[in-house]
Amino acid sequence: MPDAATDPPSAPALALALPAEILAPLPLRGLTVLAVEDSRFASDALRLICQRTGARLRRAETLAAARAHLRTYRPDVAVIDLGLPDGSGLGLIAELARSVHRPEAILATSGDAAAHAAALDAGADGFMEKPIESVGWFCRQLKAVMPLRGLSSVPGRDEALRPDPLALHDDLERAAELLTRQVPPGRYVAGFVRGLAGQMHDTALAEAANAARIGVPGGIGRLKGLIEGHLTDLPAAFAPRSQGA
Known about the structure:
Layout: H1 20-23, E1 32-36, H2 40-53, E2 56-60, H3 63-70, E3 77-81, E4 83-84, E5 87-88, H4 89-98, E6 105-110, H5 116-122, E7 126-129, H6 135-145, H7 165-181, H8 187-200, H9 203-213, H10 219-232
Helix pairs in contact: 2-7, 7-8, 7-10, 8-9, 9-10
């Protein structure tokens, strides 16, 4: 039997170098968030936020889908876009605010800052102007309207989110399709494009959407041209692969 006094010391266990996002605290752990949002790009930003904070995300693209979801599930937080394909999110906010199953927090979102007052009047606890681009910023908005939850470890650094660019591409394709069906663009189409413009930080696209909606001569053509330009100027990740690739 080997002498314990002369045995060589065992090698120290190797420390695992885990990514910082895995080691970071999870301030929203246990919360379920319902996002009523028609933009894939905006939804992906919320997905990243929930992934990094420990929250569970559910999504509905329309008012009808959200109401169907709410008949079965009870989210802790509802994040409701004000411009949806089948109507205004203000109605859903008012319904939830009066409901016996009211979520702990109701947050309205819109690319139009002027909608802030209407959202609060409808019963929202807070308003977030799009784009939502920071985990820390989102957590602070939520902590402000959920003081009794005692949310802790809210990130202080506003590290920018990087949603999936393919989701933005899908949104642009949808905008182009909507424009072919509705000329001049109505409130929903113009609002959807303005939301995309905010996410892209594209002032020209936002101005073109407003001009097309109010009937400025040449406005529709300019809007279509800008969208087609974005779809044509694709990053390498979007480029179709050759047959031999």
